[in-house]
Amino acid sequence: MLAKITSKNQITIPKKIIEKMPGVKHFDIELEDGVVIMKPIRFYDTNLEQIRAKIKKLGLKEDSVAEAIKWAKSKKSEPS
User: What is the mean pLDDT of residues 19-35?
Assistant: First the structure.
């Protein structure tokens, strides 16, 4: 399919293609070996209150991630 660059460097994605990607509004664009690659990106709504409630329920604290990393590294160095 043919797409033309406008004077504002914009390209319209053909309807036949965009219809196959409902809800996609953003793309990650790369140039690889002279080929433009457009990868659709989907965003999801996040309910921070639910996440905070789950963190509280699990008893996680600010340093929990650092502790988990330290624990995982110690297990990696132990012989199997």
Answer: 94
